[in-house]
Write a structure and sequence with these properties.
Blueprint lengths: L1 E3 L5 E4 L3 E3 L4 E4 L2 E4 L3 E3 L2 E4 L5 E11 L3 E11 L5
Antiparallel strand pairs: 1-6, 2-5, 3-8, 4-7, 8-9
């Protein structure tokens, strides 16, 4: 969840996210957060192999600032 404490609407697009893993995607493609409100976004990890790894995840927005996270990723075998 991303909070907008400002008095203006903030728009966050996918190009403001930096993800250190090609199998992680951010949804939705654009997120509009009204003033003094918050919105959820999703991270999807779709690895091709069973594996565990770490990667950096950063949001750089000119109004809200920079948010940096370390993701711990785990690809498991599919269940049927």
């Amino acid at each position: 969840m991303i909070e907008n404490p400002t008095s203006e609407t903030v728009i966050i697009s996918q190009n403001q996210f930096t993800i250190g893993n090609e199998y992680v995607e951010v949804m939705p493609e654009e997120l509009r957060i009204p003033a003094k409100d918050s919105r959820k976004f999703s991270l999807n990890f779709r690895p091709l192999m069973i594996s565990e790894s770490e990667c950096d995840f950063t949001l750089k927005n000119p109004i809200l600032g920079d948010y940096k996270y370390k993701l711990l990723l785990k690809g498991i075998a599919p269940t049927s």
